[in-house]
Design brief:
- By secondary structure, the chain is an alpha+beta fold.
- It has one domain.
- Helices cover 42% and strands 24% of the residues.
- It has a three-stranded mixed beta sheet with strand order 1-2-3, with helices on one face.
């Protein structure tokens, strides 16, 4: 788990790897982080690693957006 505290933006980004997703320790740590930073009015975002092919899915998304006319 990686925790990035962005003081100037009042934001906390938490990155959780595949091997940590089901860990009780990680769940307790996240609860603690939410409580701590909520009192300081920070936004806490948690990002979980996926299991699919990032390149393939990103390529499909870009192609879809191009075909739909999105910029």
């Amino acid at each position: 788990m990686r925790i990035d505290v962005l003081e100037d933006r009042k934001r906390v980004e938490v990155w959780v790897g595949n091997s940590e997703k089901d860990s009780d320790y990680v769940k307790l740590s996240l609860e603690h982080l939410f409580k701590k930073y909520a009192s300081e009015k920070f936004l806490v975002s948690v990002f979980y690693s996926g299991s699919k092919d990032l390149f393939k899915n990103t390529e499909e998304l870009i192609l879809h957006n191009k075909l739909c006319g999105a910029d």
